[in-house]
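Before the break, one more example. Copy the sequence into your notebook; we will annotate it together after we see the structure.
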Amino acid sequence: MASEANDSTERVVIIGSGPAGWTAAIYAARANLSPLVLIGVPATDPAPVLPGGQLMLTTEVENYPGFPEGVTGPKMMADFQAQAERFGTRVVGEDVLSCDFSRRPFVLKTSEGREVRTRSVIIATGAVANWIGAPNELRLARSGGGVSACAVCDGALPIYRKKHLAVVGGGDTAMEEAAYLSKFASQVTVIHRRGELRASRTMQDRVRALPNVDFRWHSKVVDVLGADRIEGVLLEDARTGERSRLDVAGLFVAIGHSPATRFLAGSGVELDDKGYVMLRTRSSRTNIEGVFAAGDVADPTYRQAVTAAGMGCAAAIDCERWLAEHGVH
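Here is what the structure looks like once it is written out:
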């Protein structure tokens, strides 16, 4: 492999930013691999995506070690990027449209019509929360106005404590969010468009037993009310069309996430039935030698900044060792 190297071939390309991508870049750069990070471009369809990942929609991060007073998501990602660039990381604002892993070096086609050749790849494109699509929903999510897609990330913030909160969804994730929020909220209302939950019986029983959790059945959120902060939600009965208002101080959308893996179609990288990258046991390795993955794109379980950063570290170390085994330094 080393004999095929030329000046136009990268040693490692990191696709995506966010905690996983930037941590991978920091470690790869400090290993003198001169990583290239393709951070993507802002998009709004089908859901908002910004370089920097889901933290770009998070106003306060209080559960990441090292920030005793908290930090905004955009500030954290800017600092991650600055640290990566300090050690020689190169950053390009282009999307990867497709990957050819059938030949070596690999070839990545970008949104600017370029072909990037590389010995190895770290996939760190994350996952995007599925939103309801109601007016004002994303505006209040971006501004810190009381709409969130992650209770574990935001639910313990002072603005939600001892308040009436709502959770949208009916699966295990929604039940986990409701149970978590019940520790801080005065009341949690689960809003579900059907008359029964999709969650496992164990999770249903756990939440139904909580004294401060109730349910709004056959209901869907058609609008989020409030100017600077959420004041309530407008609900519509799925059977009759009748509308009603529910006053809440926070709305947590728990209808799943979509991993950003469409660009991997036809690449040969193994994905699970929900589209997440599948990893080899206790490593960041995919089924293709020289292709690694880190963060929410390969983690449907935790989806936290700190776990994503840890996975980014592991991916960079695995990648550096793999390159060294193949004579690339």
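Residues 276 and 298 are 5 Å apart (CA to CA). The longest helix spans residues 305-325. Try to locate both features in your own notes.
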